[in-house]
């Protein structure tokens, strides 16, 4: 387990976030933003690695998660709220510009931070979720309907539905079903089936995670529940409205995108890897590097910790040396 990590509560944007940090306070700040359904603990390997190379590493439990505050309404989970939380953390540490890495929903927050406040980001690393141009004619919920009711995001929209489905399994099983999935589709369940019922638990754990580590997550979700994390999905149409003024805007921050070749959503003609290697992605994120990790799945920074840590360090070191 991660040792030497300091945890504390920080007031930001009207709420309190629990933050894990490690490293020299005088070192360059690296902010690590986790995804669904995780906590700061998902970055445990990178926290140790980056702090040992001179960085001051800060990894919050995002709003709605674990030991951070969890506002009840989904309207409190828009990208405006989430980016403001991050800005508040940077202000707390007196950091004009930080290095930022985000995975899954943390990546979406990172992209939005680069969109809203590029002046606060020295460099950004996105894991698993690329930046997608906003469709001015199609709300996310309408797009998701094209996948049918089995799509996990659609099932997450209705308050209470996913919470009830998860409760039948218990938090430890829920965590195993998500963290250990090797599916490469967009997570679509068969008709009349909840996605959590359709996901499988492998007979043996992979070598990159232990039962004790999965239990760390389960214990946090047993206390906090899943409504806060699910509210991120329930605010997606609100995000579409909020992002309208940035229609057609490019991400100008230096960016590296990292994903496994077997990530969720990599199947088919519209898969993620084809998109990130194509011209559209490069046109809207012009200062871009793309790294695809062989035999990597969705929770890539835990599954391939050495490779991901080295990719993060090399990118931030390069930008750090350029700035100096």
UniProtKB/TrEMBL annotation:
The keyword Hydrolase applies. It holds the Pfam family Abhydrolase_1. GO terms for molecular function: epoxide hydrolase activity. It comes from the Eukaryota. Its EC number is 3.3.2.10. Keywords: Hydrolase. Residues 28-305 form the AB hydrolase-1 domain. The keyword Methyltransferase does not apply. It catalyses: an epoxide + H2O = an ethanediol; (24S)-24,25-epoxycucurbitadienol + H2O = (24R)-24,25-dihydroxycucurbitadienol. InterPro entries: AB_hydrolase_1, AB_hydrolase_fold, Epox_hydrolase-like. It is an enzyme of class 3 (hydrolase). Pathway: Secondary metabolite biosynthesis; terpenoid biosynthesis. Belongs to the AB hydrolase superfamily. Epoxide hydrolase family. Epoxide hydrolase involved in the biosynthesis of cucurbitacin and mogroside tetracyclic triterpene natural products (e.g. siamenoside I and mogrosides IV, V and VI). Cucurbitacins have cytotoxic properties and exhibit deterrent taste as a defense barrier against herbivores. Mogrosides are nonsugar highly oxygenated compounds used as high-intensity zero-calorie sweeteners; they also possess pharmacological properties such as regulating immunity, lowering blood sugar and lipid levels, protecting the liver, and acting as antioxidants and antitumor agents. This is soluble epoxide hydrolase. It comes from Brassica carinata.
